Amino acid sequence: MNCREAGDLLGAFHDRELDLVHSVDLEAHLRDCTSCSANLARLEGLRSAIVEHAPYFEAPAGLRKKLSASLAPREPWFAKWPVLAAACLLLALAIWRLAPPPVPGALTREVVTAHVRSLQAEHLMDVPSTDRHTVKPWFAGKLDFAPEVDDLSAAGFTLAGGRLDYLDGRPVAALIYRRRLHTINVFTWPAGRADESPRRESVQGFNVVHWVRRGMNWWAVSDLAADELAQFPTAGAS
Length: 238
Fold this sequence. Notes:
By secondary structure, the protein is of the alpha+beta class. The chain is built from nine helices and seven strands. It has a seven-stranded antiparallel sheet, sandwiched between helices. The chain starts with a helix and ends with a helix.
């Protein structure tokens, strides 16, 4: 992907309307192109400025009276639309101002991209094994931490292996689990903060669960149903 192609997609990517395949290609380009990354940062800065500084207009007290009068049978329809349009605009502004739509964070999108990339590139595992005593030692010397590797087969999550990945600007452990025909990427690395309860998100058809446990970040991502994937943090807790 070149900068011209990336530029055509930045708007849709920024609005979270770009399909997954193009999102993966664009994110790969953004990692290497400072110019396009700066353009995206400007778009995100503009969004933040609008949300923070856009004026909020409260409907005037007389609006209800005007609306009632405009809907009276004696008035023709074309006399009503300016007031109705103004009311709709005020309502839309209030809803947008008070409840802006949630958007996935950059790290959530990065986690989903890593999951998709591992499936597309056929590089899902560096160490294929269902034995935690094989997978856990494989990471020794490759990371600056020792990841927990749990046998969760009794809970319906079967360990399939592991690999090294790169997220949030650092190397991380990726543990691969299966649930029926679904692949689950579970990423973990040190968090340096207190425990956090699981938080669920959905990005372009993929479900994501994030939690912090015993000083470690945990991210699970899959096309598995959200309710089933949400069982993973509980299955791994001890």
